[in-house]
Amino acid sequence: MAKVSVYNMEGKEVGSMELNDAVFGVEVNEHLVHMAVVQQLANNRQGTQKAKTRSEVRGGGRKPWRQKGTGHARQGSTRAPQWTGGGVVFAPTPRDYSFKMNRKEKRAALKSALTSRVQENKLIVVDELKFDEIKTKKFAEVLKNLNLDKALVVLNENDEKVVMSAKNIPTVKTTQINTINVYDVLKYNTVVLTKAAAESIEEVYA
């Protein structure tokens, strides 16, 4: 089992913790990690691009001139693509870019991402994160004490004071164990787990 130090909010080492190899010591599957990231980015795409085809553009209800005898090329509508104000050929329409991954694949991808963070010494465990009031300055002090800049903070349960204190820091994101995802784990330089969150992750994903 991987052994990591446990720090307090002042940045001092107050103990150590052994991480379960079933979650934090698996063989890293880069393919599944890549697939999980692509899936999340694809699922976030709105896919709302739209342009009108000739059947959707307003107007053009009658032939602009008769079929024969005018010297012009025959035309059926002034809303054909070659006309100004006409429709778009092969116009884009709203589409759904999302795709699914199996539950086992998602779990394996998350375990791989967490393992890679442990191997790179980019995972920190703190004994607890508790604030008496909502104060961004205090959260910034904790980051400074732990020597962190861009961090994903994983909480065991929703703590409004912690979440709101971190909300205005652009390089920090807070999440809970039930909403943690591969993209965020890899996006931020360091993953910060509370001791309770680390234990809960082991219970859920082991």
TrEMBL record:
Q: Name one GO cellular component term.
A: ribosome
Cite the record's Basic residues compositional bias ranges: 60-71
The record's listing under NCBIfam families reads: rplD_bact (TIGR03953)
Read off the lineage from the record. Answer: Bacteria, Bacillati, Bacillota, Clostridia, Lachnospirales
Keywords, ordered alphabetically: Ribonucleoprotein, Ribosomal protein, RNA-binding, rRNA-binding
Which InterPro entries does the UniProt record give? Ribosomal_uL4, Ribosomal_uL4-like, Ribosomal_uL4_dom_sf
- Role, per record: One of the primary rRNA binding proteins, this protein initially binds near the 5'-end of the 23S rRNA. It is important during the early stages of 50S assembly. It makes multiple contacts with different domains of the 23S rRNA in the assembled 50S subunit and ribosome. Forms part of the polypeptide exit tunnel.
Query: Could you tell me the superkingdom of the organism this chain comes from?
Result: Bacteria
- Species for this entry: Roseburia yibonii
Instruction: State what protein this is by name.
Output: Large ribosomal subunit protein uL4
Ribosomal protein keyword on record: yes
Q: Where is this region: Disordered?
A: 44-87
Assigned protein family: Belongs to the universal ribosomal protein uL4 family.
Quaternary state and interactors: Part of the 50S ribosomal subunit.
